[in-house]
Amino acid sequence: MRTLSHAQAKRFYDRFGTRQDRSTLYEERPLELLIENAELGEATAVFEFGCGTGRLAERLLCDHLSEQTTYTAVDVSDTMFGLTRERLAQWPSRTEVYLTTGEMDLEVDDSSFDRFICTYVCDLLSTNDIHKLLEEAHRILRPGGLLCLASLTAAHGFGAKLATGLWRLTYLISPALVGGCRPIRLWRYIYADYWEARFRRVVCPGGLCSEILVASCIKDGETLYEDR
Ligand SMILES: C[S@@+](CC[C@H](N)C(=O)[O-])C[C@H]1O[C@@H](n2cnc3c(N)ncnc32)[C@H](O)[C@@H]1O
């Protein structure tokens, strides 16, 4: 299935801006589940890919992360970069926001984070980019660090199938009409040699289904949680 190029995605989200925050109907429950299962109270360094308006970052810094936890957020859109920078300005010593070129290479050191968060971005990336992004997530996470993903996914049940069918049809007409996002199955990208699944759930608030996936990073065959 064709996907938006990096330049097209950037153009779309530059224009879309704060309207992204209106998607709470289908994102709220999935994000709650992600937060409940990401063990955020124990996180020391969080990386977020495709941070949008910075809404999730602000929520986590306000309510879920310890006062020592650092937060690095990146996005390809100038508008989103600006909005996130404004939102996170109240934590100048703990937060960094970067504008990227749209490539999946992350300019940060190996094993330097213990949470990698990415919500409603994989579903607009090409299959190749999703693989590359998860390789990068694996590189920058410490052993035992958590990969925390949410994405649109395929539906179960009549109402959800209908809503997803309409979404897919709109996507086929023009990916830009739905922000470039299409339903995918995240778990298909998770290799057992690299990740140990901790939590997976599909929920369909408002008829649109999301998959939430939390997996811990295995390096050299070991995780911090091996003896649990
Ligand atoms: C659907 S929005 C989701 C935003 C946010 N994560 C949320 O859940 O509200 C997708 C975001 O991914 C960003 N994005 C799209 N392609 C990207 C890429 N190749 N690299 C970095 N960010 C990208 C967009 O600019 C936009 O902010």
In short:
With 228 residues, the protein is an alpha/beta fold. The protein is built from six helices and seven strands; from the N terminus they run ααβαβαββαβαββ.
Q: Can you describe what's shown?
A:
It contains 6 helices and 7 strands; from the N terminus they run ααβαβαββαβαββ. The protein has a 7-stranded mixed sheet. It has one domain: Vaccinia Virus protein VP39 (Rossmann fold). The protein is globular and about 45 Å long. It is α/β, with parallel strands linked by helices. The model is unreliable at 223-228 (pLDDT under 50). The structure holds S-adenosylmethionine (SAM). S-adenosylmethionine binds at residues 6, 9, 13, 20, 50-52, 55-56, 75-77, 80, 100, 102, 119-121, 124, 179, 181.
Largest sheet: 7 strands, mixed
CATH architectural category: 3-Layer(aba) Sandwich
Mean pLDDT: 91
CATH topology: Rossmann fold
Attribute tags:
single chain, Rossmann fold, binds S-adenosylmethionine, alpha/beta, 228 residues
List the helices and strands and how they pair.
Blueprint: H1 6-16, H2 24-37, E1 45-49, H3 55-63, E2 70-75, H4 78-88, E3 95-99, E4 113-119, H5 127-140, E5 141-152, H6 158-173, E6 195-203, E7 210-217
Parallel strand pairs: 1-2, 1-4, 2-3, 4-5
Antiparallel strand pairs: 5-7, 6-7
The protein binds S-adenosylmethionine (SAM).
S-adenosylmethionine binds at residues 6, 9, 13, 20, 50-52, 55-56, 75-77, 80, 100, 102, 119-121, 124, 179, 181.
